[in-house]
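ok so for the tutorial part 2 we go from a plain amino acid sequence to predicted structure tokens. step 1 is just haveing the sequence, like this:
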Amino acid sequence: MRKKVCLALLLAAVMLLSGCTMIVKDEAVDAATEILKVNDTVYTKGDVAKMVDDQLSYMYSMYSQYGLSFDPTDKTNISDAQDAVIEALKQEAVKKQHIAAEGLDVLTEEDEAKLDEQAASDRDYWKELVKAYYFANSSMEAEELEAELEKQTDALGYDLETVRQQAKDALLEERLNDFVTKDVVITDDEVTAEFEKQVADAQTTYAEDASAFANAMNNGDKPYFAPEGVRLVKQILIKFTDEDNAAITAAKAAVTAAEEALNAEDADQAACEEKLAQAKSDLEAAYQTAFANIDAAADDVIAQLNDGADWDTLMAEKTQDPGMQSGDTAETGYAVCKDMSGFDTVFTEAAMALENVNDVSGKIASELYGYYIIRYVGDVTPGATQMTEEIASGIRTTLEDNAKTELFNSTVESWISEAKITVDKGALNN
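step 2 — the prediction. this is what the tokens look like for a chain of 430 residues:
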């Protein structure tokens, strides 16, 4: 996702910086006009206008990612971008002033070396994006291509000096954050209170909704309260072949078309009914063929299990279900319950029909995927989760991160409120 956004930003930068009404004028005097002053830090029209253009480019690209429109020449959008940039610069100014005041900007030789390494890595990253976007099908020789990559990456604002400064700014802000929040401490009582709150919230959410709980578990959540009736199952899925899936899809489309023809006002009822019957027959035949083509594979799995094969070993080798190949669900199994949403009903009913832990189903035919072979691996213990060291540690970390973020943001806001600030937004539009 990050790569897609970055590529969009590269394109947006080319499009917008060439045509936006906020392009910086060439006149040196105009560009040097003071727009914002925060204590002793001055931002000129040239500084601010460039950032406004970048903000508009960013908004344009982000909207485009979701198929939405954003007009970078709209006066309201420009004004909003100007406001956002001015607020961001206020924060930047007070942060840099306090970094300097506390001596946090003093770097060792080791710090400088790490920044050099980080900058080189970051620039290589941007060069790869430029290569993928501008030179994907280039026939240039390696040396010529490298020279063009260097040139284009610099032109887009990702020269080595710029990316190194970005890395340095990030390092110094991290130092400032650590300095401001160094005294934040989360007590055991706070951890306990938060745990109890989450248990109560989970009980409210899931006590009467086992399906929601099961879906939450399958999505990677670990609710602190479990309702009755949830079990864990694993499956070995033997899927239809791609060819048979295509045949089934085509046969379904033919059935739909025949049904629509039959319902048309001027339909020849007898002829349309005959076509519909044939289409349904073809669909049934497509299913029969699809199941026949995977019968041997499913029967082989059943035979190996009957001969004492280890379930997890065989599942890792045979299943075609991604959820059983890796991740938490492959380790613990899917959470299922009666009448749950989120799964094929055939799968859920077969899973809930197994009577005892470690029972294994036979071949369960599903018209959606193929054959399920399901093992009942255990039950989710109902009731509240017990506090463990792992849970306590996770809660403590979350509370600490939240407290530090809140303290840092409020501190920056207090610095801004205490600063001597002048703004001439109108000069941006002259």
